Amino acid sequence: MIVVTGASGQLGRLVMEFLLQRVPAGQLVAAVRSPHKVADLAARGVVVRHADYSDPASLRRAFSGASKVLLISGNEIGQRLPQHAAVIEAAKAVGVPWLFYTSLLHADVSPLGLAEEHRQTERLIRESGLNHVLLRNGWYTENYLASIPAALSHHAFLGSAGDGLIASAARADYAEAAAVALTQDQPSGTVYELAGDEAYTLAQLSAAIAEAAGKPVVYQDLPQVEFAAVLEQAGLPPEFAQLLADSDVGASRGGLFDDSHTLSQLIGHATTSWQTMVHAAAGS
Predict the structure, then answer these.
(1) pTM for the full model?
(2) CATH number for the domain including 186?
(3) Domain that holds residue 68
């Protein structure tokens, strides 16, 4: 029995789809806060269980009988450590043999502020004594595709990444990697550094957007404070704007680069081309 937390989220949904290609539906559990959101999975034979990070009893019930639990990192920045701790404690309490966790690329040495909660979660997992596998995901290409409409409107792609190389991959690539790892054997403590096969700078990304759309788009590199202010003016919450600006600066320091090709080796094929995704998103 494989339990996936956050199975109603963007990554969790994709993980479930890839698992369904490899495992009978009745051996899969979608652990979610709102079961009605995965009614379609239940209709396909997936076991659906209520699981709330703030309700340890629900987590223990959700993990009952599980051989493996995939902890997909939460999306509430600043609240993730206590949430993750609750999952780890519940898994240990019911005797789950294996815990898998979606962390951040090179979390142990990453310059991104985003890495801190991941580092602390990894420490809790190691200290728990559970057999575990760390899936350290790099940047999602989709993170940048969301900025394409604004870039086309203003003929500029803004950021603070300088000439930093970004080895992003599609969300589906990371989801497939999780499904593969969950259905194969590896030693406890295995760490997968997962990133796209091809790296690019934001200047190269901007050029690809311009080519795809047939409109001028240039990359404008801003100091972190200025970029965060622009993001706030665009309507992002201050904390999230600061997080994105910090992540860009982290990219300028190599925090989003990896050339090990571990991801493509794990899934058995090349990662999704960022150029292809840009062309599709830019309307070409």
Answers:
(1) 0.96
(2) 3.40.50.720
(3) 2-138+170-194
